[in-house]
Structure formats: C-alpha cells, structure tokens
Amino acid sequence: MQNATDPSKILIIVPTYNERENIELLIPEIRARVPGVHVLVVDDSSPDGTSQLVKDMGLEGVSVLDRGKKEGLGRAYISGFKWALERDYQLIFEMDADFSHDPRYLPDFLTAIANADLVIGSRYISGVNVINWPMQRLLLSYFGNLGARIIAGIPVKDCTGGFKCFRRTVLESINLRSIGSSGYSFQVEMNYHVWRKGFRIVEIPIVFTDRRRGSSKMSTSIVREALVLLWKLRLRSLLSRGGK
Ligand SMILES: Nc1nc2c(ncn2[C@@H]2O[C@H](COP(=O)(O)OP(=O)(O)OP(=O)(O)O)[C@@H](O)[C@H]2O)c(=O)[nH]1
Ligand SMILES: [Mg+2]
C-alpha cells in the first residue's frame, strides 16, 4: 500500500561535510524517486562550497541549513530535526550524501512507514549487505551493532545505520536536547529513546555501498564515543528498571 503522505510534507535531511561532488547528483535522484519531496541539506561550513552549490541549484523545496563549524553528524541531525518540527513535515528522513544510502529504496520506506513509527534501512537483516567496505570497517560496524544489541539491549539489527524515516510524533516526543552524541553513536542513542518510548521500529533490507566520491569522516574519537555510550545506555536501562 503506497503511503498517502503529500510529498511536500516529507523532508529528507542530508548532513554534509565536503560533499559537493555527491550532492549535485544526489538531490536530482532523490526527487526523481519521490517527486515533490523536500530536501534539507545541513552543512557545517564545508570548505569545498557544498552549501553554495546547493543554493545555486535554486530548486523549490530544497533548502540549506548552514552551521558555523564542523560539530559531527549527530549535532547536524538535531539541528535538522528542530528545523523540520518548526515546519509542518509529517515524515522526516535521515540520509547520507555519498550514495551509500541509495535513493532507489525511498519508496520502500514510504510503504513500510504505514505500519511503523520509525523505519530503518538495515544492512544486517539477513547476513551482511555491505559492498566495498574494508574488512576492518565492516567488523567495526558489525560488532558495534552486536554491542548495541547485547550491552544496551536495543532490539534492532542495524542499530548504527543512518538511513531512516521517522514519523513526526516520534521526534516531537523525544527531548532532543538530551541527546549527547555528536558522532555516529547518535544513531544508537536515538534508537534507544524510540525503543524505550514503545514506538514501532521496523527494519527494511538495504544494500550499503561504500562511497565512490569524496573522503570519509570516520575517526577513532567517533568509535570511542560509541563504546562509552553503550555502557551509559546499559546503566540507564538498569537504573530505570530498578526504579520501576
Ligand atoms: N554537517 C555535517 N555532516 C557530516 C559530519 N560528519 C559526517 N557528515 C556527513 O554525514 C554523512 C555520513 O558520513 P560518512 O563520512 O559518509 O560516514 P560513513 O558512511 O560512516 O563513512 P564513509 O566510509 O566515509 O562513507 C555524510 O553525508 C557526511 O558528509 C559533520 O561533522 N557535519
Ligand atoms: Mg558514507
């Protein structure tokens, strides 16, 4: 059953840091897959001019949120969510700029959200669906997810995945100011709150392909932040369970 949401009430948030090569190709492909959908590029003052390039495209329904300095993917999404909630968007997507999240899956998200509050594009539903990632990255991601499930108890196979569709009500009910992560563990922290509030989380299969253009923003500090977060969430679960 195709989702009946008016495409102008759907927002795709794309965080960017030095993604000019990708963004000029990605936006037209997104709008080819979901005509009339709105896009918000959240750019942390990319030195490569990503922000100005998007503005020069001059497309109706495509906006840029400029942020002063590079503060991590998590902060960028929190700003994007606030921007979306100040407006009348009913479905809010997270999507990377580097084609690792293929726009061809967008219609599948819109079908799945009809029976869910959060839809996650999952690389780990059946086996491992990742192409061209170095083994070290793959193991880091795979065991990071295992950790999120075992340590923090979050019943999601791809807990670090960043291709998502939220219902507005979910983002309205989470205290976004309490989200502390700035790196990729932001995804785990958000999933934790969505799960703890009892919302319906559905995973759909995607194939994740390593970026072809531009450079990675992955760093060891991002990995460290994620490990600390898992134990924080476990402690939080134990304390809240103890309080019941
Ligand atoms: N605004 C903003 N965007 C960021 C920041 N760090 C990463 N991004 C964007 O977040 C998305 C995911 O980052 P990637 O570097 O692709 O992360 P990854 O997919 O784990 O690693 P890759 O192997 O490099 O693809 C991309 O669209 C980046 O441009 C940041 O500090 N600020
Ligand atoms: Mg990437």
Give a written overview of the molecule.
This protein is an alpha/beta fold and 244 residues long. The protein is built from eight helices and nine strands. Helix 1 (20-33) runs parallel beside helix 2 and helix 7 (185-196) packs parallel to helix 8. The longest helix is centred in the C-terminal third of the chain and has 24 residues, at 220-243. The site of guanosine-5'-triphosphate has 21 residues, from strand 1, strand 2 and helix 3.
Q: Could you name the key traits of this structure?
A:
244 residues, alpha/beta, Spore Coat Polysaccharide Biosynthesis Protein SpsA, Chain A, seven-stranded mixed β-sheet, two-stranded parallel sheet, 8 helices, binds guanosine-5'-triphosphate, binds magnesium ion
Order of helices and strands: EHEHEHEHEEHEHHEEH
CATH superfamily: Spore Coat Polysaccharide Biosynthesis Protein SpsA, Chain A
Distance between the termini: 40 Å
Provide the residue-averaged pLDDT: 91
Q: Helical content, roughly?
A: 40-55%
Q: Any ligands, ions or cofactors bound here, and which? A: guanosine-5'-triphosphate, magnesium ion
> Do you know the CATH architecture?
Alpha-Beta Complex
Question: Main sheet, how many strands, which sense, barrel?
Answer: 7 strands, mixed
* Beta strands, count: 9
Strand content: 15-25%
Computed structural class: alpha/beta
Reported by name, the CATH topology is Spore Coat Polysaccharide Biosynthesis Protein SpsA, Chain A
CATH class: Alpha Beta
Calculate Rg over CA atoms: 17 Å
Which stretches are low in confidence, meaning pLDDT under 50 for 5 or more residues running? none
Shape, per Cα inertia axes? globular
Number of helices: 8
Largest sheet, spatial ordering of strands: 3-2-1-4-7-5-8
